[in-house]
Design brief:
The protein is built from 10 helices and 10 strands. The chain has helices at about 5-10, 50-65, 95-110, 145-160, 195-205, 210-225, 230-250, 250-255, 260-280, 285-295, and strands at about 15-25, 25-35, 35-45, 70-75, 80-85, 85-90, 165-170, 175-180, 185, 195. Strand 1 and strand 2 (about 25-35) form a beta hairpin.
C-alpha cells in the first residue's frame, strides 16, 4: 500500500501522512498530521471476503451505536481506514477485574443488538454447533478416547442447540479484545455473522488467562447482563469444549498463515496454551462437560 493511495482514501494531502508502520501483513498504522493535530488510523486492504465482511460489520455496528469497536473512516481505492483507541489485549497485559467485567458487558451488548449482518445467515442454527464430527484424531486422541467422546460431543451439541443464537463476533479470543483508557474495544470482525453466542463468551473467557472460578463469575455476569438464567454459566463451560477443540483443529493452518510474523506467531502460541488449559480445567458443574473431560483427559 502506497501513501499516495492512503491519502486518497482518507481525503488528506500526501504530506499529511507520516510514520507508516506495518503491524501485520497488509495492515499499516499511519499517523496523520493535519491542521496542527495528529491522529492515528489503521489501514488495511479491502479485498477478500473477510475484509469486506469486517468493513460491512463495522458500518452496521456504527449505525447501531455500538461504541466498543473501531470506527470505519474511509473505504476507497481498495483500502479501508479505521480509527481506534490505543490499548493492549489480555495477551500483553493482565487486565484488572473491572476491565474484564467491562469486556464481558460489551460482549453481552454486542449480542443484544439484533444485527443481521455478516456471514452464515443462510445456515440453520443446528449446523453451527460442532458435535460428533470433530476430527479428534488430528489432535492426537487415541481411539479409546475418541469413541466415547464423540457420543458425548453429539450430546453436547444437542444441549447447546437450544441457543442462544444470533449475531456473533465469530473469533472473539482474547487477542481480539483491547483494553483502552475508554473501555474495551473489540476488533477483527472478518468472521462475524450468525452463530452460537455462547461460543463468543467461551472463546474470550478461555483465552484471557483466567482461573476457573473467575471464568465462572464472569460467565454469570454475562448471563445477568442478558437476562439469561444462571445455568448459562454451566452452558458456557460446556461450550468451551467444542469451541476449543475446533479452534485447536485449525491451529496448523493459523500457524502457516502467520509464518514470518513473529508477533502473530507468539499470539497464536499463547492462545493455544490457554485453550488447552481451559479445556482441562472446569469452570462449571455441567455433568456432560465433566464426562467429556474425563473421556478426553482421563
Amino acid at each position: 500500500m502506497e501513501l499516495e493511495d492512503l491519502a486518497a482514501a482518507l481525503g488528506v494531502p500526501v504530506g499529511a501522512t507520516t510514520g507508516a508502520e506495518t503491524i501485520a501483513p497488509g495492515s499499516l498504522r499511519v499517523r496523520i498530521e493535519q491542521a496542527g493535530a495528529s491522529r492515528e488510523v489503521l489501514v488495511r486492504g479491502a479485498a477478500g471476503e473477510a475484509a469486506g465482511n469486517h468493513a460491512a460489520v463495522l458500518e452496521a455496528l456504527s449505525r447501531a451505536g455500538f461504541g466498543a469497536a473501531p470506527r470505519l473512516t474511509a473505504f476507497a481505492g481498495g483500502l479501508m481506514a479505521e480509527t481506534y483507541d490505543e490499548g493492549l489485549s489480555a495477551l500483553a497485559v493482565v487486565p484488572s477485574a473491572t476491565a474484564l467485567e467491562a469486556a464481558v458487558d460489551a460482549i453481552a451488548t454486542l449480542h443484544t443488538l439484533g444485527l443481521r449482518e455478516g456471514l452464515r445467515w443462510e445456515i440453520p442454527s443446528s449446523e453451527l454447533v460442532p458435535g460428533a464430527g470433530i476430527p479428534l484424531h488430528r489432535l492426537g486422541f487415541a481411539s479409546h478416547e475418541r469413541e466415547p467422546a464423540q457420543e458425548l460431543l453429539a450430546a453436547a451439541a444437542g444441549v447447546l442447540a437450544a441457543g442462544p443464537f444470533g449475531f456473533v463476533h465469530g473469533e472473539l479470543h482474547a487477542g481480539n479484545v483491547r483494553f483502552t483508557a475508554n473501555g474495551p474495544c473489540l476488533g477483527q470482525f472478518g468472521a462475524a455473522g450468525h452463530g452460537h453466542q455462547l461460543f463468543d463468551i467461551a472463546a474470550f473467557l478461555s483465552t484471557a488467562g483466567l482461573e476457573p472460578p473467575f471464568r465462572r463469575e464472569l460467565a454469570e455476569r454475562y448471563a445477568r447482563r442478558r437476562g439469561l438464567p444462571p445455568t448459562v454459566a454451566d452452558a458456557v463451560d460446556l461450550a468451551t469444549i467444542p469451541w476449543g477443540l475446533s479452534w485447536l483443529i485449525e491451529l496448523p493452518r493459523r500457524q502457516v498463515l502467520a509464518l514470518g510474523d513473529d508477533a502473530a506467531t507468539e499470539q497464536i502460541s499463547m492462545l493455544a496454551a490457554r485453550t488447552h488449559d481451559a479445556l482441562r480445567r472446569p469452570a462449571g458443574d455441567d455433568p456432560l462437560a465433566a464426562a467429556l473431560r474425563a473421556a478426553l483427559w482421563p
